[in-house]
Design brief:
CATH architecture: 3-Layer(aba) Sandwich
Distance between the termini: 27 Å
CATH topology: Glutaredoxin
Helix content: 40-55%
Radius of gyration: 14 Å
Number of domains: 1
Bound molecules: glutathione
Shape: globular
CATH class: Alpha Beta
Length: 107
C-alpha cells in the first residue's frame, strides 16, 4: 500500500498514526508537484485533498475517516479494554475532526 500524505496535514497524520499503530508497512509519498490541481491526482482524489490511500490492487481511497474505517475493517485493532486506553483513542480521533473545515488549524 501507499499513502499520499503531507507531514503538516492533521488528516494525513491520523491515518499515519493508524498505520503505525497497526504495524502496517506502507510507503508514504507526497502529492505530485501539480497538487492539488494535477489532473492525475484529481482522478484518484476528486476533492484534490490528501490523504489518499492506494491499495495493493491500485484502488485509491480518499477522505481520512473513510480510510480509517477501511483500515479498521481490513486490519481490526485489539480493544484496549481499559477506560484510559479508550479515552486516549478518542482524544486522538477528535483533533482532526475539529480541524476539518478550518484552514490553517494545525495541532
Ligand atoms: N475531509 C478531508 C480533509 C482533507 C484536507 O483538507 N486535506 C488538506 C491538507 S490538511 C488538503 O489536501 N488541502 C488541499 C486543498 O484543499 O486543496 C479528510 O479528512 O481527508
Amino acid at each position: 500500500m501507499q499513502l499520499i500524505s503531507l507531514p503538516a496535514s492533521p488528516f494525513a497524520t491520523r491515518v499515519r498514526i493508524a498505520l503505525r499503530a497497526k504495524g502496517l508497512d506502507v510507503e508514504i509519498v507526497p502529492p505530485p508537484s501539480g497538487w492539488p490541481n494535477d489532473r492525475g491526482f484529481r482522478d484518484i482524489s476528486p476533492t484534490g485533498r490528501v490523504p489518499v490511500l492506494i491499495l495493493d490492487d491500485g484502488e485509491a481511497v480518499w477522505e481520512s475517516a473513510v480510510i480509517l474505517e477501511l483500515l479498521e475493517e481490513l486490519f481490526p485493532r485489539r480493544r484496549s479494554g481499559t477506560r484510559a486506553g479508550a479515552a486516549a483513542g478518542a482524544r486522538g480521533r477528535s483533533l482532526p475532526d475539529a480541524a476539518d473545515g478550518r484552514p490553517g488549524y494545525a495541532p
